[in-house]
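User: Please fill in residues for this 560-position structure.
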């Protein structure tokens, strides 16, 4: 067999279910459809709608509302694939477990490692966003925290440098405040002491709640979701009276590239529906409830997102939306300070629930990887009293809390999306494998089958024809680039077209289902819109992961 085949050793569904049932202590099975939908909404309607939606609207204008629809469609294809997997393999571990069944151990490790990046990094964004809303809420009550306790070192230093070079006139009010903070912050030697204390503290508190138990986490999540949906509906209905239709013109001021530049921010707003699948073992009937919960979540959240984007871009000009708290900002701008205050308070609670769900998901992935022998045994330890993965939960708290104290948010948003797209593509590909091998024949839920034998190829040919006939600008742009520039900026686009060509051939030969193929292609296309620097960091992250796998997991794997 040799080393090569042992890298791709697979687990059977029966084996995974047996391992989950045999693990010490076991997790408490208490979640139903309503709880799962609530956890999903808690994760999806989080930092995305309360912070990154402003940046996306600033770049793309009102047309970003259409980007939410397009991204939701990509997510629906993926959610259907997740739902089929959750129905076939109803255990914790999300895409990691699914990859173990479909592609074997090496891919399972890679996807597990990518998910660690997705969950940990997205939680850092959520914690930093929470801090910004919390600080602005306190200001509303007349309490002002010292600047050096509420921001990150890098932003303050950059603002100070800009002040030195361009003078105060070139700085926004926030940059001016950051520059002054840098000058007045306490110092250790030459180093200014600047840290985001609220972000660190909220991570600590949420980690403690998740450690105590799933029942407490569920109750807290359900309460916060009701409040969160109330706030979003309040923004939509109250804001509708202040919409000025002229703000919607031009609808797409920066064209398609402007709209697509918001992909990372918009996609970040949807990340979270997959976190439902990490709680499969705590679900009463995962095979029936998981698929329903995922689809309900996406439909509810897409409708809310489209409406809220139209209201935001209708209340103020899109050029003013490059702020970290856009929902509160648009009401302040319209003189509705009371509403802005209500939104600030509610946003703090709403973002807390997103933090809760991610902190719940991350340790369960580590726990599952540890059960398989790929991570240190301590990660699989279940607390005898609380029935939660105790050690993994504590480590998650440190991994998220420490970077949240010191780093800036925009660095993390794109990075989260890279890891997630990667996981989503493997899950959609995994469903094609399950169907091809007949593994999911007895699953209670399957992705609706639409034969792609001719359809995938037909759409491929039509797309090429469309570019030749109507894409003269795109062709001219490619012709103007040197080979080195194409490799640097367009490599992923080339990968996208090659993948589509390969899937055309495979679909013809194996009668692949069209929906998982559509999931692979839409996620891969959205991936091409992310910057090259994010890819570089992601590749470095994967390289570190492979070193750990070959030095520890490969030899200690249960399958070895």
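Assistant: Residues filled in for all 560 positions:
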């Amino acid at each position: 067999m040799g080393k090569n085949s042992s890298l791709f050793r697979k687990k059977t569904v029966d084996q995974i279910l047996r391992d989950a049932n045999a693990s010490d202590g076991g997790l408490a099975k208490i979640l139903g459809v309503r709880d799962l939908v609530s956890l999903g909404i808690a994760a999806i309607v989080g930092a995305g709608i309360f912070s990154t939606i402003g940046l996306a609207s600033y770049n793309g204008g009102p047309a970003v509302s259409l980007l939410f629809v397009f991204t939701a469609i990509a997510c629906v294809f993926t959610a259907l694939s997740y739902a089929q997997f959750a129905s076939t393999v109803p255990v914790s571990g999300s895409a990691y477990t699914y990859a173990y069944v479909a592609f074997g151990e090496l891919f399972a490790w890679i996807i597990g490692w990518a998910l660690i990046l997705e969950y940990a990094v997205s939680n850092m964004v959520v914690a930093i966003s929470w801090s910004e809303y919390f600080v602005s809420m306190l200001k509303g009550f007349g309490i002002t925290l010292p600047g050096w306790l509420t921001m990150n070192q890098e932003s303050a230093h950059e603002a100070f440098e800009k002040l030195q070079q361009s003078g105060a006139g070139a700085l926004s009010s926030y940059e001016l405040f950051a520059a002054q903070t840098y000058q007045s912050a306490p110092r250790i030697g030459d180093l200014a002491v600047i840290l985001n204390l609220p972000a660190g503290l909220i991570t600590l508190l949420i980690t403690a709640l998740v450690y105590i138990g799933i029942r407490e986490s569920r109750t807290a999540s359900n309460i916060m979701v009701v409040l969160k949906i109330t706030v979003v509906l309040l923004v939509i209905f109250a804001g509708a009276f202040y919409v000025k239709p002229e703000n919607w013109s031009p609808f797409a001021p920066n064209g398609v590239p402007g709209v697509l530049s918001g992909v990372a921010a918009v996609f970040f707003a949807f990340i979270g529906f997959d976190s439902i699948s990490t709680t499969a073992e705590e679900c009463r009937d995962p095979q029936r409830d998981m698929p329903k919960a995922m689809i309900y979540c996406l439909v509810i959240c897409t409708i809310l997102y489209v409406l809220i984007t139209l209201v935001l871009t209708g209340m103020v000009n899109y050029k003013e939306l490059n702020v970290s708290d856009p929902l509160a900002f648009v009401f302040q701008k319209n003189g509705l300070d009371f509403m802005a205050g209500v939104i600030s308070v509610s946003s703090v609670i709403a973002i807390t629930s997103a933090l809760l769900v991610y902190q719940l998901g991350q340790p369960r992935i580590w726990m599952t990887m540890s059960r398989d022998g790929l991570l240190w045994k301590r990660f699989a330890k279940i607390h005898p009293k609380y029935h939660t993965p105790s050690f993994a939960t504590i480590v998650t708290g440190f991994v998220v809390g420490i970077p949240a104290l010191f780093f800036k948010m925009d660095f993390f948003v794109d990075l989260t999306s890279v890891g997630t797209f990667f996981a989503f593509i493997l899950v959609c590909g995994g469903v094609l494998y399950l169907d091809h091998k007949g593994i999911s024949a007895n699953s209670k839920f399957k992705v609706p089958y639409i034969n792609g034998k001719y359809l995938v190829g037909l759409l491929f040919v039509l797309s090429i024809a469309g570019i030749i006939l109507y894409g003269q600008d795109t062709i001219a742009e490619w012709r103007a680039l040197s080979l080195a520039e194409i490799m640097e900026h367009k490599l992923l686009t080339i990968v996208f077209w090659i993948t589509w060509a390969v899937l055309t051939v495979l679909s013809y030969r194996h009668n692949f289902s069209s929906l998982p193929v559509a999931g692979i292609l839409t996620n891969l296309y959205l991936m091409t819109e992310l910057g090259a620097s994010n890819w570089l960091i992601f590749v470095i992250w994967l390289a570190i992961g492979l070193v750990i796998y070959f030095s520890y997991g490969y030899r200690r794997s249960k399958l070895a």
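For context: The chain has 24 helices and two strands.
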